[in-house]
Amino acid sequence: MKRKLMMFLSLFFLGVGIITAQTQVRGTVVDETGEPVIGATIQIKGTTQGTVTDVDGIFSLTAPANGTLVISYVGYATQEVLVRPNLRITLVSDLELLDEIVVVGYGTTTRRAFTGAASSISEDVIENKVDINPIKSLQGTIPGLQMSVGSGQPGAPATIFIRGRNSVNSGTQPLYVIDGVPMETGTQGMRSSEGQQMSPLATINSQDIESVTVLKDASATSIYGARAANGVIVITTKKGNKGLNVNFTARVGAESMPSYTDNYKLVDADRYRDLSKEALLNGYNYGPEIGRTSYFKYYNDGYGLGLPYTDAGAADYMTWYTEIDYDSPHNVNWIDEVTRTGLIQNYTLTLNGGGENPNSARFYTSLDYFDTKAIIRGKDMKRYSFRLNFDQSPTEKVSYGFNSNVAHTVTNMGSGGGYFSDPITQAVMQSPLSPVYNEDGTWNFNTLNGYNPVAQRSNLGDKSEAKQYRFIFSPFVTYKFMDELSFTSRVGVDGYIIDEFGTWSFLQPQGKDMRGLGENGYTANFVTNITNTLNYSENFDGHNIDALLGQEGQKISYKDSYLAGSNYPIDYLNDVELTATPSSASTSRKEIVLNSYFSRLEYNLDQKYYLSGSFRMDGSSRFSEKNRWAPFWSAGAKYRLSSEEFMQNVEWLDDLTLRASYGTSGNQTVGNLDIMDGWYASRNLYDFGYNYNGQPGSNRLQIGNENLKWERTAKLNVGIDVMLFEFLTFTADYYNHRTKDMVFGVPLSRTTGMSSSYQNIGELENRGVEFSLMARLFNRKDFSWNVTLNGSHNKNEIIKLSTDKPLEYTYQIVEPGRDYYTFKMKEWAGVDPETGVGLWYLDEEGDETTKNYNSAAKRYVGKASPDFQGGLTNNLQWKGFDMSFQFNFSMGGKIYGNHLRYDEQIGNSFGSPYTEYVANNRWQKPGDNAKVPMLMFTSGVIENSHSSRFLMDGSYLKFRSISLGYSLPNRVVKNLGLSKTRIFINAENIYTFADADYRGFDPASVTADGVQWWNYPSPRSFVVGLTLGF
Amino acid sequence: MKRKLIYIFSLIVGLSTLWSCDFDTDIYTAIDMNNAFGSAQDIQNALNGVYRNVGYYPYRGNRVIAIGDMASDISEADASSGHSVAINMWTFSDTSEELLDIWTYAYKVIDQSTRGINGALALLASENLPDGDDVKLESALSQFYALRALAYFDLVNLFGLPYKAGGGNSQLGVVLVDKEPIEEFQEVSRSTVEETYAQILKDITSAKQYGSDGLTQYYFNEAAIFALDARVKLYMHKYGEAIISAEKAIELRNSAGVDNTTYLTMWRSTAITGEDIFTLVKSEDDNLSANALNTLYGSYGGGVSEFTKTRFEATDIRSSLITDDNHPKKYDGLPSAAAVSNVPVFRLSEMYLIIAEAEAILGDNLIAAQNALLYTAKRNTDITSVSDLPSTQSELLDFIEVERIREFFTEGHRFYDLRRTGAIATIAGDAQFKAADFVYPIPSAEINSGFGVTQNENWSANLPHS
């Protein structure tokens, strides 16, 4: 009977199989926390049929009874399950899984197969950051990436060194590739070389970014050949999915001055009066002893003022000298006056969708408005951006699509006339006794130097407005000749236009002198790019082969124009048209062409042994025909020990992989792109514009070198990847990047009439280690907690320049055997306790000191590059709450406070304010062991000349960001007719721990050379937001 | 399958050559160096380029002039501005920007002049020279030589110890370029001061050789060549020759000078006045803006010293060129553009003062010295005739030293005068400073380039207070 039944059943099932072979499947897809996953794709394996989950994570479809379903969702590991009527599928985040997709040059691969060194961050990291420039979210999250942001100006660029500065005279910035197309990211604009810069990357909406991958070693970068020596940053934007997903995110918040050390705060009016008097009386009392002339006495006698050398006399003298009333009732903190509470608003609408049918079109589109009113008066930025990404595979053979982005930004930057008239610079120069306004409400210009930075930033004040227009359009088409072989052609057009307008207004002395100056600049930069690749992929008997063959052409065309005039009839209209005196008109055009052929071969056996190699030829118009083409190559290998038989018993070891790669990459960005040599480096040129008395003039421009060729960086990388106990992931790399044939502007004897000539003569090395450690501390249904720690150490060393002689500057030196950013200056030996004057070390070595600044020798006093830096990130989730916070740190670098020569004046610019550091550490009487010399208004105050008195430890620990979110439970959301609701708070730049003797706004807001000026500090920001999904 | 692969491959390789871009990029604003001196207009362009560099801020537009005053007792820099402060406080070093600027731009002038001279000579020697070009080319030649002489003179005044009377000056001078420009990577060496002066005189002679008729005072005209000759001879302590050249310059300039009213107002105009022998002209579209002397003495807060201010009698009209708060009014610019002022190179007054000083030193004809001196001294309205002037040789010389301060303050003379005369002055608080013992260091960038220029050893031993 039993057997009969079996037979019957078998026949029945067979019959069903033959007749229908289908079964109705109903299932739920949830994530690790048990929350439903909306929009997960369910596909019947081997077919194009499938569906997506609804807002409850539920799906139903009819599938072959013996079939397999493939469940996938972005950010989760794809799963395959056998067909059953009822399914509950828990997707596991693929955050640290080996099958994580790694974006590499001209394609993707999996973490498992990747032989190179790369790090990436995903959209949630980027989305949680407030800055308008999305690239800043890389700070502290990528091991081996050093980011320097010199200005808190909204949209300001960041200088990025991947594994250290790699060149002296060539480009140092990584190549940016967005959706497969290399993009223009250099700063441009009429006052770019004076530091008024905005980053082209700030035209990209961070909400559009799916991932950012930083490629570091030869295996990862050599495929980009001539542009890859400084590393490659690959940005991938979001793509369309099935169904329709509408998200709206609103963020509103405030920005304020960051917390900064009291050392750098200015003293109040009472203390200012006292210290000023002290400087006067010290000068009078001690001046003769120390061989300096008291100016108090000098002018008192010279002008017959007849003032007594007492407190009262000093007070009267101050009024006479500064022409600002000593008894002024004002107590103005000019920093407070030029700053304000900033405002951030950001609204983003994204639509993401496509038909159910795999052949139907998919799209992702977004509209974004970002408005940031900065903490410094008159500075702000607005951005409008639109993106449309589209793709479709109408047949199995063909797929096509495009990525497009249109952005418009309006940035109000510093004031006209460079750093001196910048509001922060001026704020620290003004007396607390001079008010912002006169009693009648008009602007007060009776200040120490005639500037009133608040007036200058007012409506009728200086303007410096830059409008950026950017459009990126990159269509692509792929044709599959057969399963193994496909061809992709991709075109990229990147149009970048800057329209700038600036005025030096009537409300600042230089502008007033010429009744205002107006200027208009227009810059247009077009990059066109075409890439064609042929992909071949085959798997057999455990052998997996991927091959790529490609060709690329790129042309950059640049044009700018500038005009300026002065002498306006009225102060409230300032189009250049209105000026009476034209003062400048110029245009320039430049071009560069790059052609390339490349190939890559990847092979692995049983996902245990991996080999990869690449080869590329690049040809650039920058070089003469003799040296136009250069080859670049790489070889990489990887060995997954944990896949070996003998390792199978080690249960706690989930993955153990060794990686090694070696290869070369190049640097074609020779010279300075602001001038001709950056475009036509090898040519011997003579140019014009050196006019005299209205007649045209000419001069030599540059010495050509037809032998000039590519700079090449040989990169060695050895790495290890370990995963233990399913919760601990560790990755470490050692690297040695050696730049050879380094293009170096060999200093010439100036008697040739020229300063330097580019030669391939130098060598430079960066070697270091970097690691990242990630632990999934908790991973329960209701609670998860991940911690990621990353750190890196880099040693930069110049190996060879043209001669053994260094390039020496007033306080810096570039010299073989040392870090590129080495400081060499007279070393401060403190304050002489007896006399209160400064001491410097006399010789290059030894303890002997001198009071004679001129006779002190220069010494090596450190370097700006940090020894060790990194970050710590925590991600927590509890029920509907999510939280993440991040710390950054940097150790061992020094900062030279160039501005402190002025800000820490001790009487040398009498009348100027004093900082708390000066007030609290000054010498007051014989025997004092002070850090700051005696305050003295005398001749010969040389203590504020360049010396290590202003050199500081640049180490810091920064509580960089925290974000806290709450997602409403799905049933609540569903009742509201929504698919997703999250409210969140983001805060950034919360607190910085710096060295006790640090003076400045922020040791993390200093340019890579470690030279601190009156940097516009990065603000502290606080934003609340809401995301609604429809 | 194999054949299909080959087809696809060939097709794509074929297409890729079409997709590649053409390497011949255009260049729009520069030309090949080899095409730079092909016509008289090219030579004229090159000459204008030299003038521009002479008048540019790294050279005579600011630096050389600023040092003349800021390194002496004439002017004081405002420490809070950072401009000229290291020069003024004597805290500069061999890496200081000001010194490198001058060294670099003076040699740009020398190099370009040498190339211009060679270019012009080659064109003159060519057979099919268009009519009239020879006059233009000769005029250009004269100016190139004169400008080059001026550049050597400025360099040796900063980087060589002063010329000692009687010759045999074996102290280090500067690198000389005579016939051929110095090519890159060529070894060079410093000449002696004697040789440098010989080159200067040789260039002046060459400048005189070629006609330069019809040039305005914006250019290195013939009178200016003699003015330079007079100044050089004065520095060489060849007083008789200095007098002859100064007189020739006055004769060629053929001007009665300016009256007191014009003297006070001429600084606010770029028009030529009777005072000008050679002035570097500036205009609104060619101003030095923040790098102008106007800005140094304007928004950057530089001013004249109390010492300078107290050198004037109340009746001296020139004192009204200094405001109550020590602002000099020689670089206040045009009414419409405050950064636009000419930078004088040679004024008529200097020629008279050279004659006065040279005659006074020679001592044979003190009346001639007084007569010449009266030209400027009468700007003190109390002085109307030679009888109001000192009459003994030493009194006259003392008077002339101060008269030069009154006449040339902020025009960049004093520091070089102190070196020339060996006078002691109070500099950077050192009342015993002797500028004649001091020489600026050669910029470290030149030394470190390693092409043979040697440093002024022990330059720092003669700084103030040492």
Strand sequence of the main sheet of chain B, in spatial order?
Answer: 2-4
Oligomer: heterodimer
Quantity of strands of chain A, as a count: 50
Q: How would you state the average pLDDT of chain B, rounded?
A: 92
| Percent of residues in beta strands of chain B | 5-15%
* Highest-level CATH class of the largest domain in chain A: Mainly Beta
Overall 3D shape of chain A = globular
Low-confidence stretches of chain B: none
Largest interface: A-B, 107 and 105 residues
CATH architecture term of the largest domain in chain A: Beta Barrel
Shape of chain B: globular
Q: Termini separation of chain A (Å)?
A: 58 Å
User: What is the CATH domain class of chain B?
Assistant: Mainly Alpha
What does the radius of gyration of chain B come to?
26 Å
**According to CATH, what is the topology of chain B?**
Serine Threonine Protein Phosphatase 5, Tetratricopeptide repeat
Label the structural class of chain A.
Answer: mainly beta
CATH fold node name of the largest domain in chain A: Maltoporin, Chain A
Q: How many individual β-strands of chain B?
A: 7
Order of helices and strands of chain B: HEHHEHHHHHHHEHEHEHHHHEEH
Strand content of chain A: over 45%
Compute the CA-based radius of gyration of chain A: 32 Å
Describe this structure in words.
The complex is a heterodimer of chains A (1030) and B (466). Chain A has 1030 residues and is mainly beta. Chain A folds into two domains: 71 residues, Immunoglobulin-like (Sandwich), CATH 2.60.40; 661 residues, TonB-dependent receptor, beta-barrel domain (Maltoporin, Chain A, Beta Barrel), CATH 2.40.170.20. In chain A, the strands form ten sheets. Chain A has a 22-stranded antiparallel barrel. Chain A has a five-stranded mixed beta sheet with strand order 10-15-16-13-14. In chain A, strands 3-2-5-6 form a four-stranded antiparallel beta sheet, with no helix packed on it. In chain A, helix 4 crosses helix 6. The two termini of chain A are 58 Å apart. Chain B is mainly α and 466 residues long. Chain B has one domain: Serine Threonine Protein Phosphatase 5, Tetratricopeptide repeat, CATH 1.25.40.390. Chain B has a two-stranded antiparallel ribbon. In chain B, helix 8 packs parallel to helix 13, helix 13 packs antiparallel against helix 15 and helix 14 packs parallel to helix 15. Chain B is globular. Chains A and B meet through helix 5, helix 10, strand 24, strand 25 and strand 26 of A and helix 1, strand 1, helix 2, helix 5 and helix 17 of B. Strand 30 of chain A pairs antiparallel with strand 1 of chain B.
